[in-house]
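Consider the tokenized backbone below.
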């Protein structure tokens, strides 16, 4: 698929996709005979995963570290897992903090009655 289709399917602007490639968050795109970027379904899956990491608040530097490990392939599984486990702990704490905040809001709203 071309960059426009990838952008449409992923929800990311083409500019962001090019930026991700430039900083190494995504591997360089394959090029077709006309030198246009060409992507496969695996790229879409990777972008979706990056979106989840971004939504959970993972810093770009950690996303880049994960991407480098992924690109290095076999032998990096333990390091990739460690990075995700550490981030999961951060996300769980954030969920607890947000739940506490939600409880405060609910109590405040209840104080106003119907």
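A designed sequence for it:
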């Amino acid at each position: 698929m071309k960059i426009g289709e990838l952008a449409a399917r992923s929800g990311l602007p083409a500019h962001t996709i090019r930026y991700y490639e430039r900083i190494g968050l995504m591997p360089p795109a394959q090029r077709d005979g006309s030198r246009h970027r060409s992507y496969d379904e695996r790229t879409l899956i990777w972008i979706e995963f990056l979106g989840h990491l971004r939504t959970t608040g993972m810093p770009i530097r950690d996303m880049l570290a994960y991407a480098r490990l992924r690109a290095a392939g076999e032998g990096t599984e333990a390091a990739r897992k460690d990075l995700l486990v550490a981030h999961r702990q951060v996300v769980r704490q954030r969920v607890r903090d947000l739940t506490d905040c939600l409880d405060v809001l609910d109590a405040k709203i209840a104080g106003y009655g119907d």
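Residues 77-111 form the longest helix (35 residues).
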